[in-house]
Amino acid sequence: MGLKQNLHNLKEKYKGTKMAPLFNGFHTFLYLPNETTHGGTHVKAADDLKRTMNTVIMALVPCLLFGMFNAGYQHHLATGEIERVTGFFSGNFWNLNNLGVGLIKVLPLVIVSYVVGLAIEFVFCIIKGHEIEEGYLVTGMLVPLIVPIDLPLWMLAVAVAFGVVIGKEVFGGTGMNILNPALTIRAFLFFAYPTWMSGDKVWVNGARELAGSADAISGETMLGSLAQNLTPNYSVSEMFFGFIPGSVGETSTFLILLGALFLIFTKIGSWRIMLSSVIGALVMGFVFNMVADAGIIGETSKFYGLMSLDFWKHLLIGGFAFGAVYMATDPVTASQTNKGKWIYGFLIGFISIMIRVFNPAYPEGVMLAILLMNVFAPTIDHYVVQGNVKKRLKRAKVKTA
Amino acid sequence: MSKDIRIKKGLDIKLVGEAKQVTTELPLGSVFAVRPSDFHGVIPKILAKEGTEVKAGEALFHSKSDERILFPSPVSGKITEIVRGARRKVLEIKITTNGTQDYKSFDKVDVSSMSGEEVKNHLFASGCWPFIKQRPYDVVANPNQAPKAIFVSGYASGPLAANYDYVLEGKQEELQVALTALTKLTEGKVHVSVGSSKSPLAKLKEIEVHHVSGPHPIGNVSTQIAQVNPINKGEVVWVVRPQDLVVIGELLLTGKLNLKRTIAVTGSKINEPKYVTAFAGAQIGDIVKGNLNNDNTRVISGDVLSGLQEGEEGFLGYYDNQITAIPEGDDYEFFGWNKPIFNKISTSRALTFSWLTPKKKYDLNTNTNGEHRAFVVTGAYEEVFPLDIYPMQLLKACMYKDLDEMEGLGAYEIAPEDFALTEFICVSKQPHQKIIREGLDLMREELG
Q: Per mean pLDDT, which range of A108-122, A221-235, B13-27, B105-119 is the poorest?
């Protein structure tokens, strides 16, 4: 009579009651259920949605850990306590001092995101009487990684509530939403509390409190500096490995790349979307480089800084890599056909860089680009599927003619 | 001229318990049952009342929509019970034999000199018509429509399927006669697919032979039709299965309707997987007697993808030539959703390691490995779905009953069995075959 039997008895007891989905949510977290097949295929493949979502979370964990260290590193660097790193395994970065700041600042973000989001999810499941779906497990992990480190927790809680209810539950829950819930949450924050989401006072822990004092520190993201036609003094390797200011988990292109390879290898993430958005971004970046080189946009133009940035560097800075790998590939809101995924991904990359260059007030395009393409994904799919339908009609016509 | 068919998309589900190529003759058995539900879409009109004696080959009922389509008794004996369900729907017609087979005799005929109409009438009279199924809709063929071609899949690619090369051995004569008869029924060709040139079907005349290779569902006839001569709106294709060709052939040659088949008894819960001979409708307990490990076992008439759950009290389906017994999976698995999995099949590599051992045979149980969810993952079905159809879009069209969209997306070309693999790998554990069946039924009702 172990835990398994006790839980089974409890499950039978709760069966049919309002609380059943809640209990089952926790039960199925511990144990794969004892459900057997009825009608249809008698055997099923090993994967379920929990496993799929769990794989994405595993791919996100390195970014989260790096983000914690980076939070401390940026803070201590700005206050002058430590020197710039020289290599990826530098002791200036990987030390408990840095991690301590990360733990204090980042873990609360993670906890608030999960607690608020899952609580809303549970309430909706109980009201509707359906099982708790796993969608929020990934969203809840993404959200803390794409916000600035100093975001007040209550803002996060409000945004999560908004994003889960309006972005997802009103459409019918996991699998039914049109917009990526994590980005809906971020977009809400961005438009509701813009001063907390952009500028040079939000990216480094403590910048806001110290502003105006003798110890004032500033931490501008690379995109921010470039948009002001300043030249940020970070080396390519610092950009690639992620020792730069930015949202919590988006800075390390290196770890995002590893995550992408893991997702592609496990066949959970769509390599088509990832690859085509990179191509799209490179094409747009290259076009802007040509425009800048041709002298159409002069050095005095406010677009010059970002436009003249080497096109491949766009992949290393800002949230582009993170968005393309973890957000654009969300299967529910992306295009669902393979051909559609190519178009969808390409346009995300293309539009991201376009917004980045032409919107100096908020020089991060990937969020808006993905949300925009989320809206257009069904349209893309519609035309791809119509292609198949037309082919079938044509075949029939050739036959009768 | 033969055209080869090769596909890459698909998935072979390799299971423990493949039948050894030895055949055991079984005694006749005592109770048999014919179930109208085996003939999907047919509403039965009972001809043989409870208590009457029938001979093997004598009609039990006919289709309400066409009284020429007769459904014969596989054995001779007394009709002991007609089991009815809700609204007096006929569920089963049970026949108890007296231990000997007494055949109703039909005319021996010379097929080569018969016209199409004569062949048709002979098949009607002898109760062979139900062997001919049609696409679209995957139902017993409507004799009033002319098929543009007839397809026979002589290669079974399903999990643990009976090997046609083995079970058809020595039946060339019957097969040839039956195929000749089929050629009279269509203006087009009779296409037969074979897995190897050793197949008894490979050398037959008057037909077009195709060599097929690739993973399951290459043996599904829809896959072959799509490659050879895809179905367009308004067209009809007829489909016959090789084991039924043998029955038709024997009827034409000898005048006896002999529904005795070689059945593969397979699965990890069978002590000694092998072939046996049995009549359609035989009780499963008789077929697996002494050969079944009946400890928490599911016995299936058919294969693990599209078969019916029966148990020992159940009966062999009218079209089935396979019985599968696998363990029930009604147990919890601790952290089953995130620990590495080595003993189950998966098409992903999300800590599932079946991609490391493509040749390994698995002992799968009936656990769903997760709960039912909305469609979330995209792009996975396409990897195991060889037709030029968008599977998820078609499934959704069936779910929201949009007839135009179903038609446009190719619902005429498919049968529920074509969605067995997508159902198997479905992360959201959706019942694809049921969705498709209901969609096809709706189309048939609305569009005819």
A: A221-235
Give the relative orientation of helices B432-447 and B391-399 as an angle to the nearest 10 degrees.
60
**Residues of chain B numbered 361-380 and touching chain A (CB < 8 Å):** 364-380
Report DSSP letters for B40-100, one per residue.
Answer: TTPPEEE-S-TT-EE-BT-EEEEESS-TT-EEE-SS-EEEEEEEE-GGG-EEEEEEE--SS
| Cα A156 from Cα B405, distance rounded (Å) | 42
DSSP character at residue B322: E
Taking a C-beta distance cutoff of 8 angstroms, is the pair A245, A220 a contact? Answer: yes
Q: Nearest Cβ partner of A395 from B232, B300, B428?
A: B232
Q: Contacts of residue A176 in chain B, CB cutoff 8 Å? A: 374
Q: How many whole angstroms separate alpha carbon B444 and alpha carbon A152?
A: 60
B377, B410, B420 ranked by CB distance to A41: nearest = B420
Q: What is the pLDDT of residue A337?
A: 94
Specify burial of residue A178 (Cβ count, 10 A radius: 0-12, 13-18, 19+): middle
Name the pTM for this structure.
0.91
| Best-predicted range by mean pLDDT (A147-151, A259-263, A397-401) | A259-263
* Residues B220-246 pLDDT 10s: 999 999 999 999 988 999 999 999 999
- The identity of residue B207, as a single letter, is I
Using an 8 Å CB-CB cutoff, list chain B residues near A48.
337, 369-371, 373, 427, 429
How would you class B311 by CB atoms within 10 Å of its CB: exposed for 0-12, middle for 13-18, buried for 19 or more? middle
The token pair at B56 is 């093997």
CA atoms within 13 A on the CB side of A241: 15
Question: How big is chain B by its Cα radius of gyration, in Å?
Answer: 21
B303 contacts B323 by C-beta, under 8 angstroms: no
State the Cα–Cα distance between residues A392 and B388, nearest whole angstrom: 9
Q: Which of residues 399-428 of B touch A (CB under 8 A)?
A: 408-410, 420, 423-428
pLDDT above 50 (res A174): yes
Please, how many CA atoms are within 13 Å of residue A203, restricted to the half-sphere of its CB?
Answer: 24
Handedness of CA A273, B379, B11, B213 (dihedral sign): negative
Residue matched to tokens 């001779």: B76
pLDDT tops 80 at residue A17: no
Residue A42 is nearest to which of B230, B307, B393, comparing CB atoms?
Answer: B307
Is residue A184 helix, strand or coil?
helix
Side chain identity at B402, as an amino acid letter? D
Find residues 245-304 of chain B whose CB sits inside 8 Å of chain A: 298, 300, 304
Q: B289-294 — which CB contacts under 8 Å span 24+ positions?
A: B291/B265, B292/B325, B293/B269, B293/B325, B294/B269
Counted residue by residue, chain A has a size of: 401
Q: Please report the number of interchain residue pairs, chain A to chain B, with beta-carbon separation below 8 angstroms.
A: 220
The yes-or-no verdict on residue A143 having pLDDT over 80 is yes
Q: Per 3-state DSSP, what percentage of chain B is helix, strand, and coil (rounded to 5)? A: 25, 25, 50
State how far the Cα of B250 lies from the Cα of B205, in Å rounded to an integer: 18
Q: How far apart (Å, rounded) are the C-alpha atoms in residues B27 and B101?
A: 11
pLDDT score for A284: 94
Q: Determine whether the interchain pair B374/A133 forms a contact, defined as Cβ–Cβ distance below 8 Å.
A: yes
Distance CA B60, CA B48 (A): 5
Measured between alpha carbons, how far is residue A1 from residues A9, A20, A364 in Å? 10, 22, 56
A183-220 per-position pLDDT tens digit: 999 999 989 998 888 777 788 887 777 776 767 776 77
Strands, E, within B112-259: which ranges? 133-135, 139-140, 149-154, 190-194, 208-213, 237-240
How far does the CA of residue A140 sit from the closest CA of chain B (Å)?
17
